[in-house]
Amino acid sequence: MPKKASGNFDQVKYQNQWIKENMSEVRARYRNEFVTEFKEACKKLGVSQSEVIRAAMEETIRKAEGK
């Protein structure tokens, strides 16, 4: 496990390493107006943008698997 120069466990370094090894980003660019509408819609519905994107990704995976 990562250690600081003082010999103590370095939590931040550990977390950053874990993220690097286990997480990926999905990026997309859309027109400002579209993004603003999306953000406002999420806010009105009380859901996070991440929740909506994840649900769409999961649905796409299910469709591709024929479920």
The total beta strand count reads 0
Element string (H = helix, E = strand): HHH
The major sheet is characterized as:
none
- Secondary structure category: mainly alpha
Taking Cα atoms only, what radius of gyration do you get, to the nearest Å? 18 Å
> Uncertain runs with pLDDT below 50, 5 residues or more?
none
Task: Give a structural overview.
By secondary structure, the protein is mostly helical. It has a domain at 30-67. The protein has 3 helices and no strands. The chain has helices at residues 11-22, 32-45, 49-64. It is elongated, with a radius of gyration of 18 Å. The mean pLDDT is 92.
Q: Which features characterize this protein?
A:
elongated; mainly alpha; 67 residues; 63% helix; 3 helices
Topology:
Blueprint: H1 11-22, H2 32-45, H3 49-64
Question: How do you describe this structure in short?
Answer:
By secondary structure, the chain is mostly helical.
